Amino acid sequence: MSKRIGIIVGSLRESSFNQMIANSIPELVDSAEYEYISIANLPLYNADLDHEEGPDPVKHYREAIEKTDGILIVSPEYNSGIPGVLKNALDWASTPTKTAVLIHKPAGVIGATPGAKGTILSQQQIRQTLDATLSYVMPAQKMYISQIMDKIDSDTRKLTDDTTRKYLQRYVQSFLQWINQVQRLNE
Questions:
Q1: How many domains does the chain contain in total?
Q2: Where are the alpha helices (DSSP H) in the chain?
Q3: Band of the pLDDT at 8, cuts 50, 70, 90?
Q4: Range of the structural domain that residue 96 is part of
Q5: Is 38 exposed, middle or buried (0-12, 13-18, 19+ CB in 10 A)?
Q6: Which neighbouring-strand residues pair with 73?
Q7: I need a labelling partner for 66 at 20 to 30 A (CA). Which of 52, 108, 141, 176 fits?
Q8: Contact criterion met (CB below 8 Å) for 110 and 16
Q9: What is the pLDDT of residue 167?
């Protein structure tokens, strides 16, 4: 049975490089089903609003994550860290504490940037947040895409660099294997 992967993009920008990377995933690994989980309409986290199922956008967001076998987060780095909109989304997915949708959820982290260092600092913070939510973050393998401007076609909004495409394909295939390992841990 094919795995259902949720893809969360940590940027709201219309021409987001990370959205371009996310859009490349289904064509590179077609053995899974993919669902893009939007974080655009989530309100700022406020514990006063976080009762029962939460506001409608939060309820739908949590339900979307719940229905997946694992989530891939594809995110830029802003000011040497996690984008605020993504941190907000992870905070909403981390409650209620004992039944949060991220508990024991397999997760992978990918990031692209025009800079030379990839999204190293952002990914460290994303991983730290996911660890705190009791998610199972794929260990060891990292997916940093630097100098993204040289690896995409801005007209077609596609990832065109063959080396990066192969690297991304291997990462997603490894993530599918990680989901299988996590499922055995949860039995």
A1: 1
A2: 17-28, 56-66, 84-93, 120-132, 162-185
A3: very high
A4: 4-185
A5: middle
A6: 8, 109
A7: 141
A8: no
A9: 97
Q: Which two tokens stand for residue 3?
A: 């795995």
The model scores a pTM over 0.70: yes
What is the band of 184 on the pLDDT scale with cuts at 50, 70, 90? confident
User: End-to-end CA distance of the chain, in Å?
Assistant: 17
- Report cis status (omega within 30 of 0) of the bond before 96: yes
Contacts of 181 by beta carbon, 8 Å cutoff, 6+ apart: none
106 touches 138 (CB < 8 A) = yes
Give the whole-angstrom CA distance, residue 6 versus residue 107. Answer: 9
Q: What percent of the chain has pLDDT over 90?
A: 86
List the Cα angle 44/50/55 in 5-degree steps: 70
Helices and strands, counts by H and E, the chain? 5, 8
Nearest-5° angle of CA 131, CA 104, CA 92?
Answer: 65
